[in-house]
Amino acid sequence: MLSAAPAAAQSTIDFTISGSSTVRNWTCTAQGATAVTPASAGIAAPGFPAGVQSAKVTVPLKTFKCPNDEMTQHLNEAMHSNQFSEVVFTMDKYTVAGSQVEASGTMTITGVTKPVTVPLRVTPSAAGAVVEGTTRLELATFNIEPPAVFLGMLKVGPQIRVAFKGIVGQ
Question: Percentage of the chain surpassing pLDDT 70?
Fold first, then answer.
């Protein structure tokens, strides 16, 4: 008799997106959802002794909050949030070295899917694992035109920093 695959545990994770512009640095925040399916046997990871079968992170674009409404509006326009409602990372594989995990998979932003590798720090917790990390993304990779306002006098830089932290359950 075949056993059913373990159910995916749903959790939330907090994101901070930051970058630069010709006027000042900026930061926006959002909350995303993770779906992690533990493996029945695989490469052990902190908080997941039998490993992880699959993981997916989804961040709805409309959850982004910037220091002011105008910045939030510019972010949503640049990300075409009316057409593409979310950012999605789907993990294909991972490697573990102590509490350091390197997750490889695909990132989909504005309908463009590209391979990415994200370094993570993972520590066991009573609820599963605390997952945190930071990565940089080039906007052009995902066909995003950096916002420019005031006749181009204020222009966002071509790269953003994505930082995240949350508890991922089993």
Answer: 91
3 lies in a domain? no
Q: Is the pLDDT of residue 4 over 60?
A: no
Residue 31 is part of a domain; what is its CATH number? 2.40.128.110
Poorest-pLDDT segment among 77-91, 110-124, 153-167: 153-167
Helix/strand/coil for 165 = strand
Residue type, 150: F
**In whole angstroms, what is the distance from residue 41 CA to residue 154 CA?**
52
Distance CA 86, CA 4 (A): 29
114/118 Cα distance (integer angstroms): 13
Q: Tokens at residue 59, please? A: 């961040």
d(C-alpha 74, C-alpha 78), whole Å:
6
Q: Which residues contact 114 (CB under 8 A, 6 or more apart)?
A: 106, 107, 141, 142
Q: Work out how many domains the chain is built from and give that number.
A: 1
